């Protein structure tokens, strides 16, 4: 079986490693991949939907899995289906649940999904005027895709005005900021729940806790993710019950009623508060770096699970009775400016799983090529043991100006 995985980060490397556990997988292709994916498959140069579609047809690809959101929102699934190609992911209309936050909030409100109160604006002056009518802190969001960076928590009116100006006037997120949401601030703990959807049922995966900020204690700038633990220690049985009742079930009802049926991933970004469990956002693909922490705990075969979802069959996800900790090593200066091309040393000494996020192979050496460079993942019977193992491995790896948070999984 030939599989094409679209993307170039640690998530795609992790998907490839897990899929390769099934003996049916004979060839893996990655577009465009990285130095890690090159070790388990073939990297190809194709980035547009037409190029990817042509490659899948001419190389008799049996299944395509889309890692990143941009192509899903652009309608890659629709084009592949029109060409008789098997692909795992939402069609263009359903992908708006991630690609358009205003669309997603309207959907949540219509079907009774528990979420923060909000208002949307396309007029800059109207949005500014609204800032005098609300409580602070508040949340200002660009409605479109912004690579995980289009959400700003404003502590006061002045910060909210600055956020609005940057998004709507300066266009720091381009056209994604043409519409904004000003939303109630929820105080609590975030949780990520990935799930598989077969058009009839949603099967949630084990929970995860992402660490978004660059600095320890959740300080500094937002990043794509500095580390993850799974399961999330704050996701109790009570939280799962509330999630199922107030978020998952009404979401499923809305998808069916609106005819937004597809086979793919639904990622629920949750906030656990004293007032209950709220949905912050939907993503319609695997999270990064959540995937890297969650998949090593999956006991079931990922390929079988994916094929069952595509075929509308029952999906059975079994999990190891273990914990995982994923620590992300980044280039110095990330998430702002950073240098590339530094030699990565020490990988051969690692005793745990690792996934390459931003590195390329040059003359049989791995050199940094991105902000997030490496995901080191350890599993163990306890959360503390997994955390200890992960950090022991991190110390074995070196590259110039490397940086990582030292408090991933520390919930004391």
TrEMBL record:
Protein name, per record: Phosphoribosylamine--glycine ligase
UniProt-listed InterPro entries: ATP-grasp, ATP_grasp_subdomain_1, PreATP-grasp_dom_sf, PRibGlycinamid_synth_ATP-grasp, PRibGlycinamide_synth, PRibGlycinamide_synth_C-dom, PRibGlycinamide_synth_C_sf, PRibGlycinamide_synth_N
EC number: 6.3.4.13
Record-linked NCBIfam families: purD
PANTHER family linked to this entry: PHOSPHORIBOSYLAMINE--GLYCINE LIGASE (PTHR43472), PHOSPHORIBOSYLAMINE--GLYCINE LIGASE, CHLOROPLASTIC (PTHR43472:SF1)
SUPFAM superfamilies assigned: Glutathione synthetase ATP-binding domain-like (SSF56059), PreATP-grasp domain (SSF52440), Rudiment single hybrid motif (SSF51246)
Catalytic activity: 5-phospho-beta-D-ribosylamine + glycine + ATP = N(1)-(5-phospho-beta-D-ribosyl)glycinamide + ADP + phosphate + H(+)
Primary gene name: purD
GO molecular function: ATP binding; metal ion binding; phosphoribosylamine-glycine ligase activity
GO biological process: 'de novo' IMP biosynthetic process; purine nucleobase biosynthetic process
Protein family according to the UniProt entry: Belongs to the GARS family.
Annotated ranges, domain ATP-grasp: 105-311
Pathway the protein contributes to: Purine metabolism; IMP biosynthesis via de novo pathway; N(1)-(5-phospho-D-ribosyl)glycinamide from 5-phospho-alpha-D-ribose 1-diphosphate: step 2/2
Keywords tagged on the record: ATP-binding, Ligase, Nucleotide-binding, Purine biosynthesis
